[in-house]
Automatic annotation (TrEMBL):
GO terms for cellular component: lysosome. GO terms for biological process: receptor-mediated endocytosis. PANTHER family: PALMITOYL-PROTEIN THIOESTERASE 1, PALMITOYL-PROTEIN THIOESTERASE/DOLICHYLDIPHOSPHATASE 1. It comes from Schistosoma mansoni. SUPFAM superfamilies: alpha/beta-Hydrolases (SSF53474). Its EC number is 3.1.2.22. Keywords: Disulfide bond, Glycoprotein, Hydrolase, Signal. The keyword Isomerase does not apply. It is an enzyme of class 3 (hydrolase). Belongs to the palmitoyl-protein thioesterase family. This is Palmitoyl-protein thioesterase 1. It comes from the Eukaryota. GO terms for molecular function: palmitoyl-(protein) hydrolase activity. InterPro entries: AB_hydrolase_fold, Palm_thioest.
Length: 264
């Protein structure tokens, strides 16, 4: 964790050197909260290393318990709308910002760029973010809220693309079944949209082009994001739950390159 923190600080310091200094938002991961010890430690480290930097830790509720529950049960697009409004109402963020997302928060900050309007987006850092989704039940940690994680696992096992589950479970909305790609593309309410699996969205593409730097951090021993290649936009090959492919070799990449959807 110490080495990762050092790399994050180096990335942000380099960004502030190459461009004007911008404030930073941090979006936590599954089962965590914006006021969690690890998140606040990161915020403090940024402020110590880059003095007078405004840092905002994202929360979706004033209640600690609800903030944690929202990481499982508040639909992702609702979270994005809420955070987008929060940012627009904060005058400290009106002239642009850097973004850091941890675990599923890494996916959310990337989607936030695509769905929200910002005057300027500096560096976007995704730390273990499942950019291509997951196809594996996340490991639960006994942190006092393990019952929420176990319920999430039970619902995913029952059927991620069942309408009720897809509409109410965050992790189902970035569940990506390589054995049923057609089903995923038809019923996914979030991931298939932001990855433009079904139709071209030039607005998404243009907003992605406005990011000054996109930094994707992959954990080589990750047991939460399955497959871990998703953290670099890789995933399982179509029809396989064992063989993986890189972003550059994926059908997604070649299709988007051909139609100029997202990557440039």
């Amino acid at each position: 964790m110490h080495n990762l923190l050092a790399w994050i600080l180096l990335i942000l310091k380099l960004s502030c050197t190459l461009t004007e200094k911008l404030p930073v938002i941090i979006w936590h991961g599954m089962g965590d909260r914006g006021t969690g010890m690890g998140i606040l430690k990161l915020a403090t480290a940024i402020q110590n290393e880059i003095p007078r930097t405004y840092v905002k830790c994202i929360t979706t509720s004033d209640s600690v318990i609800e903030d944690i529950e929202d990481t499982y049960f508040m639909p992702i697009n609702d979270q994005l709308d809420y955070v987008c409004r929060m940012i627009h109402e904060d005058k400290n963020l009106s002239n642009g910002l850097h973004m850091i997302g941890i675990s599923q928060g890494g996916l959310f900050v990337r989607a936030l760029v695509q769905k929200c309007n910002f005057s300027k987006v500096g560096t976007v850092v995704s730390i273990g973010g499942p950019q291509q989704g997951i196809f594996g039940i996340p490991k639960c940690i006994n942190d006092g809220f393990i019952h929420l994680c176990l319920l999430m696992n039970e619902l995913l096992s029952y059927g991620a693309y069942i309408n009720f589950i897809q509409s109410h479970l965050v992790q189902a909305q970035y569940w990506h079944d390589p054995l049923e790609e057609d089903v995923y593309r038809k019923y996914s309410q979030f991931l298939a949209d932001i990855n433009q699996e079904n139709e071209i969205n030039e607005i998404y593409r243009e907003k992605m082009k406005n990011i000054q730097r996109l930094v994707l951090v992959k954990f080589s021993g990750d047991t939460i994001v399955i497959p871990k290649e998703s953290e670099w936009f890789g995933f399982y090959q179509n029809g396989s739950s064992t063989n993986t492919t890189t972003l550059q070799d994926s059908i997604l990449y070649t299709e988007l390159q051909r139609s100029s959807r997202m990557f440039c």
